[in-house]
Each structure stands twice: as structure tokens, then as C-alpha cells.
């Protein structure tokens, strides 16, 4: 199996000018292990870039423990639902180790993007690339779990 490319980081995806503007409104936060960053279905009003530590994205499964969908670490975006209506979390997130991160107020970032269409386009493309990467990763994991042995191999 071919390893997927790394998740698009803000550093690689955004032009320096836009990165600098975003970082001016970033707030450094420390999140203790076991802390829930957000719950599925709640209002999505912020997002994070992980500096150190690990965050698990999970999905509610009735009658069972939440299913971990993906683990995110250094330089990865936690949260994309803030950008798209209806602006509610599609998953939950929990710090599985102590986490240090940059936290961004979603309303302030959307306002910056509205004021500067080039920045808005760059942010939307970055978040879109992250989403596409995560969908490809999920697809690969599902194929590994459920596809019959040899399915998908060329004949």
C-alpha cells in the first residue's frame, strides 16, 4: 500500500502574509490529557493547530464508547466545521496526551477572510485539502478493514 501524503499544514498551504495575519490572532493554549475539545453536534466556534501532543477525533456510537476516527498531532488542523454552515461539529475531539496548540476564534477568522478574498480563498483551499486528505485516509482504512483480500489489485 502507498502511504498517503502528509496532511497539508498551514505552514505549507498558506502564503506567508496570510499565515502571519492568522497567527496575530492565535492564542496559545494548553489542554490537559482527557479534555474534550468539542462534542459532535455542538456549535463550531473555534479551531486549533496542534503544536505538541495528540488529539483523537471520534464519533458517537449509540450504546458503545465513541469510535476513534483519526489521531492528529504536530502542525495538524483540529476542526474544520467552523468554516462551513451550519457550523456544528461533525465529530468529537479529545486530547489523548497533554496538548499545546494555537487556538483561533472562528468568527474572527471568517471576518478576516471576508475582508480579504485572497486570504479567504487560501484558507478555504487549505481546509479543503485537509478534508480531502482525511477522506482519502478514511477510505484507505475502510478498505484495509473490510475489502476482501486482494480486492482492488490489478489483474
Automatic annotation (TrEMBL):
Q: Which Pfam families match?
A: cNMP_binding
Q: Where is the Cyclic nucleotide-binding domain?
A: 10-79
Q: Which domain of life is it from?
A: Bacteria
Q: Which InterPro entries match?
A: cNMP-bd_dom, cNMP-bd_dom_sf, RmlC-like_jellyroll
Q: What is this protein called?
A: Regulator
Q: Which organism is it from?
A: Streptomyces resistomycificus
Amino acid at each position: 500500500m502507498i502511504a498517503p501524503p502528509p496532511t497539508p499544514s498551514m505552514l505549507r498551504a498558506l502564503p506567508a502574509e496570510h499565515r502571519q495575519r492568522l497567527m496575530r490572532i492565535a492564542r496559545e493554549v494548553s489542554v490537559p490529557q482527557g479534555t474534550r475539545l468539542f462534542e459532535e453536534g455542538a456549535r463550531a466556534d473555534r479551531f486549533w493547530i496542534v503544536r505538541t501532543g495528540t488529539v483523537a477525533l471520534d464519533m458517537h456510537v449509540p450504546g458503545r464508547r465513541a469510535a476513534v476516527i483519526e489521531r492528529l498531532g504536530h502542525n495538524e488542523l483540529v476542526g474544520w466545521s467552523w468554516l462551513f454552515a451550519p457550523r456544528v461539529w461533525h465529530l468529537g475531539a479529545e486530547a489523548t496526551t497533554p496538548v499545546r496548540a494555537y487556538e483561533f476564534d472562528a468568527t474572527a477568522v471568517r471576518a478576516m477572510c471576508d475582508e480579504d478574498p485572497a486570504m479567504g480563498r487560501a484558507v478555504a483551499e487549505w481546509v479543503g485539502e485537509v478534508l480531502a486528505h482525511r477522506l482519502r485516509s478514511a477510505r484507505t482504512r475502510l478498505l484495509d478493514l473490510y475489502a476482501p483480500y486482494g480486492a482492488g489489485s490489478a489483474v
